[in-house]
Amino acid sequence: MKLHRTLVMAVAIATLVPIGELCAQSHQVTVLVKLLSDPFGVEIERGAQEEAKKLGLKCAVLGPNAAEEAEQIRMMRDLITKGADGIAVSCLNGEAMTGPINDAHAKGIPVVTLDSDSAKSERQCYIGTNNYQAGVEAGKAFRQLMPKNGTYAVLTANLAAINLNERIRGFKDGLGDGYQEIQGSPLTCDDNVPKAIQLVQDTLTRNPKLDGLFFAGGWPMYAREAYIRALGSHAPDIKTKKFVIVSFDNLVSQLELLKDGYANVLVGQRPAAMGSKAVEVLNELVDHHPIQDSYDTGVDIVTPENVAEFLKK
């Protein structure tokens, strides 16, 4: 990579430095994750920082202060206007991001997506989890624990996120027939941890005979004590597998909860690997090197039997 180039990477999180200033600097990799305080985004940043250091680049973090599509799109367009050399974006709404991505492509700016795709756009590759297949694995794990004809609810962030919708579709295919999703599911928390916890509590209060919950992301498990309180009388039943919780992601707070019996299975993604690969691929694109159409960063199935191994990492 030529040292005078500025490499800007958009993943969609929180504005720490003005975009204009970043684009004016040299040797700069800019990472935008979905939300500043989101633990998943923090892991993406960690991987991106490590790869940037390896490549001799500086790395900063940008993005909206809340998971808002309009703000993410505004920031994407601002990056295009400032003349970014390359952008990687994790789309809050893949359909809505199609136009901005195509505009960047028309201006000769290479764009890749990570974590959450915009498959109909002119992005040059997708980096992250095979969300459908990972959802299938979650559904299979759920089926092994759920009684036939059991009832369940799904928690997601929003109904426009392609990655989350693919997970839910895979989950239902992996679960198969003979199970009933309750009315009002999927529940949408807008990437907001307190809202996710409240939805868990309200759902269990209104549906005391519910047999299980599937979290398409780990939101309610990011606040341990509040999450345990939200489970209420169902908490002891998780340990005895009378009530089932399968969740995406395996961040430390979730691993601790699994170890202590407040979840049954975690489908762990590899966000640090996504951030690292995104920086690596953008570096290749800026230097006009060939890349693949997609990069599957893989998943880890974490259970009470192997959780100790992941807590050591």
Write a structural description:
- 42% of the residues lie in helices and 16% in strands.
- Helix 2 links the parallel strand 2 and strand 3 (58-62).
- It is of the alpha/beta class.
- It is built from twelve helices and 14 strands.
- The strands form three sheets. Strands 7, 8, 9, 10, 11, 12 and 14 form a seven-stranded mixed beta sheet that branches. Strands 4-5-6-13 form a four-stranded parallel beta sheet.
- The chain folds into two domains: 7-127 and 272-295, Response regulator (Rossmann fold, 3-Layer(aba) Sandwich), CATH 3.40.50; 131-268, 3-Layer(aba) Sandwich (Rossmann fold).
- The chain has helices spanning 19-24, 39-55, 69-82, 98-106, 131-145, 162-175, 193-206, 224-231, 235-239, 252-259, 271-286, 307-312, and strands at residues 7-8, 28-32, 58-62, 87-89, 111-114, 126-128, 151-156, 180-181, 187-188, 212-215, 244-248, 265-268, 294-296, 300-302.
* CATH level 1 class label of the largest domain: Alpha Beta
SSE sequence, one letter per element: EHEHEHEHEEHEHEEHEHHEHEHEEH
The CATH superfamily of the largest domain turns out to be Response regulator
Please give the CATH architecture of the largest domain.
3-Layer(aba) Sandwich
State the shape.
elongated
| Number of H- or I-type helical stretches | 12
CATH topology of the largest domain, what is it called? Rossmann fold
Provide the β-strand percentage band.
15-25%
Query: How many structural domains can be distinguished in the coordinates?
Result: 2
Radius of gyration of CA atoms, rounded to a whole number: 20 Å
Question: pLDDT below 50 for ≥5 consecutive residues: which ranges?
Answer: 1-27
Class per helix and strand makeup: alpha/beta
End-to-end gap: 32 Å
- On the 0 to 100 scale, the average pLDDT is 89
Report the helical percentage: 40-55%
